[in-house]
Amino acid sequence: MSYYLLNHLSTGALIVVIVGVPTVVALVVVRVVDGMFPNLRDLEMDDVVRDVVGVWTSDAFGPTIFRAVDGEIRGVLRMARGTVIARLVDGVLVGTWCEAPTRRLPRDLGEVQWRMTKSAGTGELIGRWRFGNKGAFRGGWDLIRVGGKELEPPDVISLFDQPSRFCRDPMRRRPARTTAPAPLGAPVGRH
């Protein structure tokens, strides 16, 4: 016999399905008291933090270090002293990147999206990016996990101590996204 816990996000109910062989034995719906169980979305973010925080590398973009800072994922890159602020949206890490020299549109600020995969036990982030928030995404911002805090390059992590280097949404006046990002398998522009 096994059981499954399902958190119904809109009502806050905890649904417990108890499965026996060969059929469902019981279905129990419990009203969750605030704070009794963590929200499913919080669990997803905890998983992202555990899986994403650390040192990553890319042939195209070099080392990238991700940390959890104030409820979001922040990243720093050696290439062009770049930074990223990201959050989880429907299973995709969605963020804003910027880089020196200007950290502004049209060439030094834009959007990025990564989807987590595992290949031969190694974490991979399959990524795409674009300048600003319009136009086609470009592929190629793929990252492979190489380790944790012990491998953080000192020259790169110093960017974490410079909050002004992290850029927010490239078009602040734009309303918040209410739909999921396009699938990462969608066609992308050329770099």
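Above is the first protein from milestone M3; the second protein from the same milestone is given next.
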Amino acid sequence: MRSALGGERWLAREATAMAPFAVFAARFCIALIFLANGLGIVDQTRAASELAAHGMPEALVPAFMLGGRALQIAAGAALVIGFHERLAALALAAFLVPATLVAHDFWASPEAERGAQLVNFLKNTAMLGGLLFVAFRPGTRRASS
């Protein structure tokens, strides 16, 4: 049986060896929802309706939806492959914050929807945390990202 200290050393060694794969997997998992949205795998009809309901002129909604989808595809793909991953994460975060405030305003939702909107708001907050971690994590070379 290994001592506690020996076990920690083994775990540190294994974690170091697995780090490149884990970092890729983390970036892939974070990017997946943005790619699904951008590629239209997730229906965006409700998102378009919410933009109009929150005061955006209906004539501008298609352009904003197209721009959002393009950003999600480009930054999501960049995040997956690690191309300027910090910039990609910041771009997705900049998109996510206003999208969350518009689409998941649980504080203004009817009582029947409040719980579901709160859950979605908190999920988006967790996604934001992952994006901020990618953008500002220590120990990565700035020149490559």
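Note on the second protein: The CA atoms of residues 1 and 102 lie 55 Å apart.
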